[in-house]
Design brief:
131 residues, elongated
Length: 131
Amino acid sequence: MSASPQNLIAELGRQLGLPQLALDSDGECALRFDEDLHAELRYAADDGLLHLAAEVGALPANAAGHLLRRMAMANLDPGNLGQCLLALDRDTVVVGRCLASQDLASGTVIDALRQMVLTAKTWRSCLHGAV
């Protein structure tokens, strides 16, 4: 790893104009984009992975089967998802990505975060269009 996770998050904060951004004592921090998109970053020292996740939205009951099939198919080619994966947390669709310690660099983290946010926004539109 070229820098510590704390330094990478600090650099991410500088790039985002958030100089106080830092991991808490649990190795986590949260960001909000466009007032309603919540993203979480968590560094797991035991596996050396930086976990990124964003809530996309509630899975609409009237289209759950159709959307679950689309999500499963999309996960077969994560390149179309910006290297992210879609999942369910109870009835909420989330998009996530893990970065291995050898892949951690300031440019990699901001690029992965940017791609995850774009993927979340795209799938949020899919959820809203399915209602």
